[in-house]
Design a protein that fits this description.
Elements: E1 4-8, H1 9-12, E2 44-48, E3 68-78, E4 81-83, H2 87-99, E5 103-109, H3 117-121, H4 124-141, E6 145-149, H5 168-182, E7 187-192, H6 209-212, E8 217-221
Parallel strand pairs: 1-8, 2-3, 3-5, 5-6, 6-7, 7-8
Antiparallel strand pairs: 3-4
Helix pairs in contact: 4-5
Keywords: Carbohydrate metabolism, Chitin degradation, Glycosidase, Hydrolase, Polysaccharide degradation, Signal
GO molecular function, one term: endochitinase activity
Catalytic activity: Random endo-hydrolysis of N-acetyl-beta-D-glucosaminide (1->4)-beta-linkages in chitin and chitodextrins
Length: 227
């Protein structure tokens, strides 16, 4: 079965920023005051690595209100190097999350961590080496999945230093397909703008069929830019 689920970040994915709650979520209140998603819904939180410290620790995370965490971010340095996060913090988060029946993905890229996405994705060897690197991260940290946050394929709307190529979107699909093959039972998601990723003419594509063809992939819409 092919599933192309779309989750709006403005509703179901909320960043934990040094507070003991995850904000207002449209989920029923239980007798004990806990909020959890019901049915097929999920409460997904982006947890920035840099927010964890003396004033906000893993023990402050409201696990009873969280279904899944995207740990942000792994910076893409090359096909073989993804860094920019504290390994010990990630290990603590994964252990605590699993103890509370919460799943964890590493969010790869982000606004400032995706400079080399285009250069890596444009060649078969680059994609293969990158997938191997990501699979190793999943295995080493006991992650439940990956959240691919390329901002943005075939677009100059990202950081000025980002590599850009007209074939970025096509190459991103190839990369995601290879990731899904390498991690068939893991969570795979992408963070995306409200408009489709750009096509070869550097304008939003009129089709998302290639992305929709990737089995069991979630799309997190970055709807927080919409008034």
């Amino acid at each position: 079965m092919r599933i192309f689920n779309i989750v709006s970040l403005v509703v179901a994915s909320l960043t934990i920023l040094g507070t003991s709650t995850i904000g207002s979520v449209a989920a029923p209140q239980t007798a004990k005051g806990k909020r959890k998603a019901t049915g097929n819904g999920k409460v997904i939180a982006y947890l920035p690595d840099w927010t964890l410290g003396d004033s906000y620790s893993v023990s402050n995370i409201p696990w009873n209100k969280t279904d899944h965490i995207n740990y942000a971010f792994g910076s893409v340095v090359s096909a073989t190097v993804v860094n920019g996060f504290d390994s010990s913090k990630l290990k603590q988060v994964v252990e605590a999350a699993h103890n509370n029946k919460v799943t964890v993905s590493l969010s790869v890229g982000g606004w400032s961590g995706g400079k080399e996405f285009s250069n890596i994705a444009k060649t078969a060897s680059g994609r293969t080496n990158f997938v191997k690197t990501l699979v190793a991260l999943v295995d080493n940290f006991g992650l439940d999945g990956l959240d691919m946050d390329w901002e943005f394929p075939a677009s100059k709307d990202g950081m000025i230093c980002n590599s850009v190529d007209p074939a970025d979107s096509k190459n991103f699909v190839a990369l995601l397909s290879q990731l899904r093959t390498a991690l068939p039972s893991k969570i795979l998601s992408v963070a995306a703008p409200l408009s489709p990723f750009n096509g070869p003419n550097y304008a939003p594509s009129n089709s998302v069929a290639d992305y929709a063809a990737i089995p069991d992939m979630y799309v997190h819409l970055m709807a927080y830019d919409v008034n």
